[in-house]
């Protein structure tokens, strides 16, 4: 008996990955674990890709619908995309190979609010889930599963799939037991009850995932690392964004609109988000909590320094150095971190109740406060909306952050009209760039335009934006609530496509 | 002692409206009762307008910021707008005089999710509330207030305002006592608790509003009717929309995705929404519940027939005939209707928990599933987003309904790109026109486009829409996730502005 698989029933099901993937058929819907580069199945994707390639060599079609927690890594999404093995994908992706296929139009991508994905599956909106492939850290004697470095949609996939393949990854620290809080009392309407969570550090569930052993068709052992990108060092632009944001929090506390220990923070993933965390860590704030999606390196810094006393999330998103640091001190982090299902980490009910401070990156904002988080020049998807909508809509206070320009100044992140809307004018509180911070709360669209242009736009684009508003106001004197020139509103993007310069 | 004002302290404060409005000063923020044409103050607006006009005649400025539950009526918003007395307005408006001022750019309008308005005021996002003017049905001996025909934001305004004027309207039936459920346990983060409601007919609060008597500066007696528009008779187009929608619900029940008595319904206000209610009433469905904003005439029909067994809302929106019918049978409706604060009627926590079926009108949808609920040709606001975002985002299932054309066929309600986004592609489930029903659940943007064009667009616009997608796909082969031609995507709207025809 293997020390990681102590359930007698499930121990009999251990096979190779090559054997396991024989349970996956062309046209299946496959629900995998994984959120950021953490906790995804390490062996199944390559084995399935080989099977797909063999089928292709025989002239047969072999593609699957792939559902996950969120993004995965090159050895999951990447290897399957490389053999054109993914017909459709939800609810999030950041893999470059798969992104190219999505943008070429050969893969159908459903970019969904992460808090919606589990329930929409359960509602039956996505069709049947043929098989789940879920990485775990260990299988206990009674069949309970110790989750690994992400939870994501694992509970739903395990509950709802017809068949289950478990991957037991020896690389994941056995000490993960106790780092998870899996809420098993979700239900379909009309049988839903209040979710009893009132503090980020509260346990409302159990440390284990569960599975009906009769559904488990294979157990595969692996010993392979998670793969997350390293973060870039904090640059001047990110540092300036962080300073504006931290200053503003200070100002809100002083104005009496927020407690000194703030409210639970949520931080998106990426270099700017990491810089904001660094800014908080360098500040006087202390005793904070996080109610967020991902524990990235910056969160460990905050936990280490005591700036953060607790973090609730659904996944780790650590660099190699971050992983080493976490593993070396894992027992010190116990009790300071809980991973939950993404339907709980991102739940509107909880985000609103806790009064989360949401901080998310964006691709662009427009002068009236609409934000584009997903599309480059209106048509190509970058990654996806992820949890940004779950958090922003229900937050006590939300920030959207970005450098004011991109591509060496060729692109303005502040435009007359965003080329795609992910967060509407009704949902955006504060826009921050290295130029400054535009507080849009309580303002009408024209007042927002003044503030966004003055405080967030890059100086070299300010005059053109101001002139746009003035000409739009003049052109239609009875249409000045949100003044636009519809034959010009997207011309900045078109100009970039035509000339490489907005 | 007046039979409607039996509190000794408050009875001493009865004055004329002209006296009462002396407590309102230029530049004040004034929070009024009112939601649809129900429950707004009947005497204050005209008296304040007279005072404003007198000031203006003396060469003095007199404008106020006006906050409400939602829309009001010509004798509230209308009379104040007529003297240019409103400097800014939130969170919703449908008054034509005020709308013209907003669109002329002379009034700042903050068009907000209704579930956000109370908490954003309390968070301090709107600044100080100088005075509240709230209509009630009666004042009880202990100072408790029997609400009138809408609740809206009254609880928050009464709690948060520096001063309060009460209007006691003798026209409102004294039997209203017991029709309301006011939840007084809301709190600011980090002190929020789960809201204990799990069924639409559950009482979680008290039948009364409360006010600190020391803040009440005046009590005014009125005897004036609510004013709601009559509905048009159901026409062929609305009937067809209703039939598609009811058929689809039938189909969902048959597919096992919904119980036979459905899930709580929410219905927007308007003729199409009323037609949908009529369609439900004519169907085999029975024993339904509603968790909605407004009880309109169609809801009374459903309650009378037993199709609906209970309705939770925040307001009545009855025609004159509907009011008479309600008043004549008011005791029969008791126990079948509860009015709540709009922060509760529209609460994301509750909408998601109950699994509401949300049905809302729209101005236009685009082929990729984005919906515009608020703006005509991108710049002029029509009314506002109201509760449509609260319900749609958190619904079990949402529908957006509209005739497929407007202005006698000059405008297509299905366009390449909406000119304003209120509900994003991540949030829209089903689009319904008289042409048919486009079920967009689980689909990628290009698959949505096929379905919207085939099932929802008017035949005379279908080819042009299909050609648009084909040309967009051809133009940028690596940008086919959401194919757009940015120099053409809004050209349909521009063409209408230029030529009167899309």
UniProtKB/TrEMBL annotation, chains A, B:
Residue stretches making up the Acetyl-CoA hydrolase/transferase C-terminal domain: 322-468
Domain Acetyl-CoA hydrolase/transferase N-terminal intervals: 11-221
Residue numbers annotated as active site: 293
Keyword entries, A-Z: Hydrolase, Transferase
Transmembrane segments annotated in the record for this chain: none
Keyword Hydrolase: yes
Taxonomy, superkingdom: Bacteria
Gene3D superfamilies: 4-hydroxybutyrate coenzyme like domains, Acetyl-CoA hydrolase/transferase C-terminal domain, Glutaconate Coenzyme A-transferase
GO biological process: acetate metabolic process; acetyl-CoA metabolic process
InterPro entries: AcetylCoA_hyd_C (IPR026888), AcetylCoA_hyd_C_sf (IPR038460), ActCoA_hydro (IPR046433), ActCoA_hydro_N (IPR003702), NagB/RpiA_transferase-like (IPR037171), Succinate_CoA_transferase (IPR017821)
Positions bound to CoA: 268-272, 363, 383, 387, 407
GO molecular function, one term: acetyl-CoA hydrolase activity
NCBIfam families in the cross-refs: YgfH_subfam
PANTHER family from the UniProt entry: ACETYL-COA HYDROLASE
Similarity annotation: Belongs to the acetyl-CoA hydrolase/transferase family.
Name of the protein in its database record: Acetyl-CoA hydrolase
Organism: Nocardioides daphniae
């Amino acid at each position: 008996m293997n020390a990681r698989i102590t359930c007698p029933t499930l121990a009999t099901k251990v096979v190779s990955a090559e054997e396991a993937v024989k349970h996956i058929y062309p046209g299946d819907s496959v629900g995998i674990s994984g959120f950021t580069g953490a906790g995804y199945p390490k062996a199944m994707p390559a084995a399935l890709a080989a099977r797909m390639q063999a089928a292709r060599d025989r002239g047969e079609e072999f593609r699957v619908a792939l559902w996950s927690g969120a993004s995965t890594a090159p050895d999951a999404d990447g290897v399957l995309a490389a053999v054109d093995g993914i017909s459709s994908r939800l609810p999030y992706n950041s893999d470059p190979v798969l992104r190219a296929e999505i943008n070429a139009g050969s893969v159908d991508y459903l970019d969904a609010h992460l808090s919606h994905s589990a329930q929409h599956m359960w509602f039956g909106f996505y069709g049947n889930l043929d098989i789940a492939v879920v990485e775990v850290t260990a299988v206990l004697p009674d069949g309970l599963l110790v989750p690994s470095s992400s939870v994501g949609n694992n509970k739903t996939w395990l509950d709802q799939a017809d068949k289950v393949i478990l991957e037991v990854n020896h690389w994941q620290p056995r000490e993960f037991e106790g780092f998870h809080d899996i809420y098993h009392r979700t239900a379909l309407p009309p049988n839903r009850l209040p979710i009893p969570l009132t503090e980020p550090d509260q346990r409302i569930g159990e440390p284990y995932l569960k599975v009906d052993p009769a559904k488990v068709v294979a157990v595969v052992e692996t010993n392979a690392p998670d793969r997350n990108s390293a973060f870039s060092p904090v640059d001047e632009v990110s540092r300036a964004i962080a300073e504006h944001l931290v200053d503003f929090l200070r100002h809100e506390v002083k104005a009496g609109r927020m407690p000194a220990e703030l409210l639970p923070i949520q931080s998106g993933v990426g270099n700017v988000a990491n810089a904001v965390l660094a800014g908080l860590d360098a500040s006087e704030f202390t005793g904070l909590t996080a109610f967020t999606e991902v524990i990235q390196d910056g969160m460990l810094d905050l936990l280490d320094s005591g700036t953060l006393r607790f973090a609730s999330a659904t996944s780790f998103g650590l660099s190699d150095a971050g992983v080493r640091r976490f593993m070396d001190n894992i027992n010190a982090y116990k009790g300071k971190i809980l991973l939950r299902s993404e339907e709980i980490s991102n739940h509107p009910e909880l985000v609103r109740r806790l009064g989360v401070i949401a901080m998310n990156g964006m691709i662009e904002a427009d002068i009236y406060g609409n934000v584009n988080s997903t599309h480059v020049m209106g048509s190509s998807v970058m990654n996806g909306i992820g949890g940004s909508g779950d958090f922003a809509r229900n937050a006590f206070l939300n920030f959207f952050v970005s450098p004011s320009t991109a591509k060496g100044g060729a692109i303005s992140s502040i435009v007359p009209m965003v080329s795609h809307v992910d967060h509407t004018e009704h949902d955006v509180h504060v826009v921050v760039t290295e130029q400054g911070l535009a507080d849009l709360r309580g303002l009408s669209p024209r007042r927002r335009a003044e503030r966004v242009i003055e405080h967030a736009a890059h100086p070299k684009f300010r005059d053109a934006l101001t002139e746009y508003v003035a000409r739009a106001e003049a052109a239609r004197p009875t249409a000045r609530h949100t003044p636009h020139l519809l034959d010009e509103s997207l011309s900045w993007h078109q100009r970039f496509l035509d000339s490489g310069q907005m």
